[in-house]
Amino acid sequence: MSFIHSSAEVSDAADIARSAYVWHIAQVREGARLGENVVVGRGAYIGSGVSVGDNSKIQNYALIYEPAVLEHGVFIGPAVVLTNDQYPRACNPDGSLKSASDWEAVGVTIKHGASIGARAVCVAPVTIGEWASIAAGAVVTRNVQPHALVAGAPARRIGWVGKSGVPLEADDDMNLRDPVTGDIYAATGEELALIEENID
Fold this sequence. Notes:
Layout: E1 3-4, E2 9-10, E3 15-16, E4 21-22, E5 27-28, E6 33-34, E7 39-40, E8 45-46, E9 51-52, E10 57-58, E11 63-64, E12 69-70, E13 75-76, E14 81-82, E15 108-110, E16 115-116, E17 121-122, E18 126-128, E19 133-134, E20 139-140, E21 148-151, E22 156-160, E23 169-170, E24 176-177, E25 184-188, E26 191-196
Parallel strand pairs: 1-4, 2-5, 3-6, 4-7, 5-8, 6-9, 7-10, 8-11, 9-12, 10-13, 11-14, 12-15, 13-16, 14-17, 15-18, 16-19, 17-20, 19-21
Antiparallel strand pairs: 21-22, 23-24, 24-25, 25-26
């Protein structure tokens, strides 16, 4: 049975896995899906139809607006925002208040194993590649390559990370090595390729 704190607001129309946790004053809207072992922290917001894959963590006060898709093993830091309005306005050109039918929601897609640091903002529509790391406070306005480490506003790649999340280090053969897993990668321009996986 999933754990849902008594102060959380979880729609009966949400799909919550039995091993998921939803903590204090979090809100999970209708049609949202939380996979196995997902943890939703205090005060977080999960929008209508958002999909969160297994073993993902959404930290306190993060705002995940629909139609975001988070694959398995995604980390969302405290107060992260995934936007969904590419051209935000409160009013239409004629001065009338915008309604849901006056704009089209666009989403952020976060691929397997990627991490978004505290207070980062991902401006939809963008895709964050597998195992990428977004530094705290970054503003992501364009797609991020797999394994890229990006920082700044707007975010730019400043290095590469392995599956451990630790920055890759150059080895004697001019390749890049994950100091935790021992995996070896080769970087060519703006792409990284795994050339040797350390399997113990």
